[in-house]
């Protein structure tokens, strides 16, 4: 089989903390220079590449002389602020040898959950790529709280792939790819060459982080592949230590684990909706509404809503559950939580009388709804 990167024009490459910092030993200049060489090679083939790089916390700890990863959020954030300086300096100096400019882009989940900021981030990244600049992306660790955290850069890499509608996501890590079990703990684990992204059996194979500086382990990589597939991006998980790995992948060599995007690509706005990691509230639907959504391709009307949880405003994303507690869909509401609680179980014709005004007959219009 040819590599899934052979035909990819736009590629997101994610490198993990363990690789960038040589397992917490400080920035690995040789490795970073080697990836910069390879990415420059791809750019010269007229491909567009975005780099999502971890390593700020690990590098900050090294610079501050901290031996153990701190638990306190303020200390982690301080380490990230110190380490991010080293990270971008290193990338800038390695890419400048190839005559390429780099740009630092730090994102939080809030930036991508807000539609305007999302579109802004997309347009900035596309402009940078059109200018031939390499965006170097990381989570904005210094300002994030648990509520707005991506949590790991595998997820961030997938969201960036969705954001710019990349053709492929390459996750470089300290293993050759995915094995049937964590190879650090199970030496007999079998290597997985190829699978469909999102196949349920993959999640059972993946364990947590094996290194002391990585955070997500293999599970977040498998989930990232599933997420990236929503915008049609294939995912490759490969070793960042494999010589010329990116160049070989782009030339068609099937190095690493290839996770093929098997599903139909979602429309851009629906992808954005699917990428919300946290929602403002939820509505519980009766069985008639579940059927209307699932089987008849209809919008969600207030009459099919039994109850409301959380506080949301018009235009925010909410989860739609059935009475048995299963999330069926998510969508953008036309009415706030307090308005919804007044019009639920009522026909749309009564909205004007109850609220004194009508915005829309639907609580969530079909165009603003995705089924899960
Ligand atoms: N099924 C698996 N196949 C390969 N690696 C696995 C698996 N399950 C868990 N792992 C662990 O995931 C680690 C990579 O994740 P992580 O430490 O978070 O690295 P990174 O910094 O690259 O994100 C590997 O070193 C390995 O120990
Ligand atoms: N934003 C953090 C990234 C943490 C993270 O996800 O690390 P990893 O699991 O190595 O990709 C940092 O730069 O340290």
UniProtKB/TrEMBL annotation:
EC assignment: 2.7.2.11
Protein origin, superkingdom: Bacteria
Record function comment: Catalyzes the transfer of a phosphate group to glutamate to form L-glutamate 5-phosphate.
Enzyme class: transferase
Pfam families: AA_kinase, PUA
Protein name: Glutamate 5-kinase
Pathway note: Amino-acid biosynthesis; L-proline biosynthesis; L-glutamate 5-semialdehyde from L-glutamate: step 1/2
PANTHER family for the chain: GLUTAMATE 5-KINASE (PTHR43654), ISOPENTENYL PHOSPHATE KINASE (PTHR43654:SF1)
Binding-site list for substrate: 54, 141, 153
Domain PUA intervals: 281-364
Source organism of this protein record: Methylovorus glucosotrophus (strain SIP3-4)
Stretch forming the signal peptide: none
């Amino acid at each position: 089989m040819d590599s899934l990167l052979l035909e990819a024009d736009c590629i997101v490459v994610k490198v993990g903390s363990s690789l960038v910092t040589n397992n917490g030993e400080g920035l690995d200049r040789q490795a970073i220079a080697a990836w910069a060489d390879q990415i420059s090679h791809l750019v010269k083939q007229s491909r567009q590449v975005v780099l999502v790089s971890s390593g700020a916390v690990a590098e900050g700890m090294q610079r501050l002389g901290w031996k153990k990863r701190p638990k306190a959020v303020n200390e982690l954030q301080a380490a990230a602020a110190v380490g991010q300086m080293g990270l971008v300096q290193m990338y800038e100096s390695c890419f400048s040898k190839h005559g390429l400019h780099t740009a630092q882009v730090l994102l939080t989940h809030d930036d991508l959950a807000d539609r305007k900021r999302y579109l802004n981030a997309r347009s900035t990244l596309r402009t940078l790529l059109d200018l031939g600049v390499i965006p170097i992306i990381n989570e904005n660790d210094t300002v994030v709280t648990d509520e707005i955290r991506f949590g790991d850069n595998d997820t961030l890499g997938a969201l960036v792939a969705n954001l710019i509608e990349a053709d492929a996501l390459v996750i470089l890590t300290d293993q050759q790819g995915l094995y049937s079990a964590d190879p650090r703990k199970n030496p007999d684990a079998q290597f997985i060459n190829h699978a469909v992204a999102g196949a349920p059996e993959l999640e059972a194979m993946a364990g947590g982080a094996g290194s002391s500086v990585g955070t997500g382990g293999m599970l977040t990589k498998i989930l990232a592949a599933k997420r990236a597939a929503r915008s049609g991006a294939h995912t490759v998980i490969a070793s960042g230590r494999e010589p010329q790995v990116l160049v070989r992948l782009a030339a068609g060599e099937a190095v690493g684990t290839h996770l093929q995007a098997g599903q139909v690509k979602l429309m851009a706005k629906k992808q954005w909706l699917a990428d919300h990691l946290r929602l403002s509230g939820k509505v519980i639907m009766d069985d008639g509404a579940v059927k209307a959504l699932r089987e008849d391709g209809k919008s969600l009307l207030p009459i099919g809503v039994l109850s409301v949880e959380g506080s949301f405003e018009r235009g925010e994303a909410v989860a739609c559950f059935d009475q048995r507690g299963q999330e069926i869909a998510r969508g953008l509401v036309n009415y706030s939580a307090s308005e919804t609680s007044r019009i639920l179980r009522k026909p749309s014709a009564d909205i004007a009388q109850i609220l004194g005004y009508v915005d829309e007959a639907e609580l969530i219009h079909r165009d603003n709804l995705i089924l899960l």
